[in-house]
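User: Hi! Is it possible to get a structure for several chains at once, not just one? Here's what I have:
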Amino acid sequence: MTTTATDSPKAQTPQDFHSGLIVRWCPGCGDYAILAAVQKVLAERGKAPHEYTFVSGIGCSSRFPLYMSTYGFHSIHGRALAVATGVKAANPKQEVWVITGDGDCLSIGGNHFIHALRRNQDFKILLFNNEIYGLTKGQYSPTSRFGMVNKSAPYGTIDEPVSPIKLALAAGATFVARTADNDMAHMAETFRRAAEHKGSAFIEILQNCVIFNDKVFEEYYGVKTRKDTLVYLHHGQPVLYGKTVEKGLAVDGFNFKSVDASQKDQVYVHDEHEPTGTVANMLAGLSHPESPVPLGVFRCVERPAYHEMMYAQVESARKANGEPDLGKLLKGPKTWTVS
Amino acid sequence: MSTVTDEGILGNTEKHDIQELDEVTILFAGDSGDGMQVTGSQFTDASVVFGNDISTFPDFPAEIRAPQGTLAGVSAYQLHFSNHDIRTPGDRIDTLVAMNAAALKKYLPELDKGGILIVDKAGFGPNELKKVEYKSNPLEDGTLGDYRLVAVDITPQTIAAVRPAGLTGRNAERCKNFYTLGVVYYLYDRPLEPTFDEIRKRFAKKEPVIAEANIAAIQAGYNFAHTIELFKVTYRVKRAIFDPGMYRNISGNLATAMGVAAAASKSGRKVFFGSYPITPASDILHELSRLKHFGVLTFQAEDEIAAVASAVGASYGGVLGVTCSSGPGIALKSEAINLAVMTELPLVVINVQRSGPSTGMPTKTEQADLLMALFGRNSDSPIPVIAPATPGECFECVYEAARIAVKYMTPVMFLSDGYLGNGAEPWKIPDPEKLKGFDFGWGLDPASFKPYARNPETGARAWPIPGTPGLNNRITGIEKEENTGKISYDHENHERMTKARYQKVANIAQEIPASSVYGAQEGDLLVLSWGGTYGAALTAAETVFKMGKKIGHLHLRWLNPLPPDLGDIIKRYKKVVVPEINTGQLAYHLRGTFGIPVESYGRVRGKAFTVGELVTLFNSLLV
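Assistant: Yes, the chains can be modeled jointly so their relative placement is included. Here is the combined structure:
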């Protein structure tokens, strides 16, 4: 890819983050909005494009880094998080963003997903979840709904879908959020939060595939219905929803139930920092049509990032062993001299 | 045989025979828990400090603790020491130490007729015999008549010897390997003090009782052998003549780890070492994990793919990515190695080959990943391949792999094997100041930077570091336009880029010095070897050459590219033979490259060649 001439330290406009390459997603694809939201948030933050590295695997969404004016590595299927691990270790000052899809991240790359999160690798991980394989033209993905009929499942899928949020929580992710490609303001706010998080920031983006899985989220994230079918999580605030904010979610055993918003003592007050992650996991279990689907930050806790601990060990090894002395290393504990 | 006054450790002055020998091969064998690796390495240390040349090879089971007393559980350590230059751990055994019936059964076929056989009687009880299907006790039934059998009550004597130090029961019994060491020290006239010092250094602070017990056990074994005149004759192997310099003993895996650390140190860029544990390569990960202060970032990945992919990412990030595994793990890495081929990033792939296919025999050696190294990736994807000849050479070869990877912006495969990795030899310590420098930093002027512009001398692209203003670039595994690196599906461009990647690797031939052939420079037979077969092939060729035959030997360090003068050298001989620990992979490659007939001698027994079998082979081809 070419170098951008506009890489000044004071990049201020979303356009400064565009590589100049013509974006070639399908017309109407949700990816356009996500790209715009990322570029908008980065422009606000004041860091220059060269301070970022975007890493991706393979899939429609993984073309994303090629459209950015930052450093970028479009790698191989499923391995974005593994590649990013090396990028960050080599170059800890770089802010590393990983762009991945439901197949790339949760199927072929599922193992790396678990391990990147448990290590608290300092990546912003954007999962473009469209519940389908797009680039290979329409096979079911690990998030496709049970029974879905598609090219590789003409009689319907018999695979139970995985919940990206639950998987991330189980892996020990320190920041877990969900947003939607049709809500620019919410995406931008979520990306801002992620960018400021130290450690793994995982965001599931409900992303519409206009060709192979069009309107899969429409029933609950559609603009007309979403006040009743989505619920927005805000730290320290009661979890309320409904056209006139008349409903709330209350803890009911190991689940949530819908209650009248007036029952203030019953409505759950969202706590991102809840240490066990149990409530976040309960929220992740809410699905359409039984319940409103939560958007926002499920969990945000602090833990040292992997690269910090890695470099701390290098530093302490240097303190313990003194400056590296290659000659001494080669000699080892026991030598003899032949004259 | 000469009779000399023995002023041994006891100050006794009685006379007995001491015979001078040029070389000796001992094999210590026992149950996995018997401490045979420790015994072997102690004898090795004593020998190198004394000044012998040595070559060693440990042979242990894959199981951590296989059932006691079984053939599967036998762990052995072979040691060849001499007063002259040697290159292999020895063809046949002169002295076999067998701590139990299983060890005897497994290794007796390798003991020379007339050889010394030291056994622990306690390892030959009814149970032990039954486990290995001995119908009668070989110590008593006369079947060992061809050997000089020395059966000792090692176990009870050890227990008695260490009691004063305060050890009893199982802990006392565990010292029997040191008692045995004492017996063998007496047999080969080794000084005891260096070993005592070593033991004190290792144990005295934390476990003074263990230190004293081990010393007592060695002394007891030595005294016993001396007092009862266990051996009619003892032996002495004089110092070998080495090039002047400072030496140490080194294994191939340790040398490999130090070569990686040296690359981190000398390049001025760190090394990122991504690895997943696998036999027989894990020692390299262990060692480098301790060398973080040399600028080695070690990462134990979740799997082989993450290990290599993270290394590729690190190379994009501006440090040298290194990954390490053995055959099955390398197979998993091939897609990510190709990502480095396609994006043109430096990467060192260390393959400590083992016997396969699939899981194969993990602790046994083989050289059968050569064709995988050369061709085992999708599409046209040449990478340079380098193979060390000796344990010590692992150091300079992996360092060279790193230097070439950076200079030519390519993955380099380093093919070691279990025999080299675990084998050890004296190593003349190199001067780090004399290591070649690293060559990068070309093409990084922001005004003219193009991600896929090529250095005219090497064909390599530039190596920008993320975070540098003005060098922002995006790379991809998709085919790219020349110079700009933009995605390109253009037909002619793809062919040009494929050729450019091929030519870049071919250019590495300019780094290979002129080949040096041992023996006849032209004539009847050229022996071509690569990797760990070097010692046996050269020694055998030397033997046959000294018989007056027109035989030459050439060892290949680079398998891709091949030395530029190889084609001419091959033409000077009537026949070419390649002995290798596979079914004929280099032979196959040479036939394809040069279009000439090549004799192949491929054996896959999970062990190295003996010199003897190669001498026979070469003579048979010279009829």
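The first strand of chain B starts at residue 2 and ends at 5. Chain B touches chain A through 77 residues (CB under 8 Å).

User: Great, thank you!
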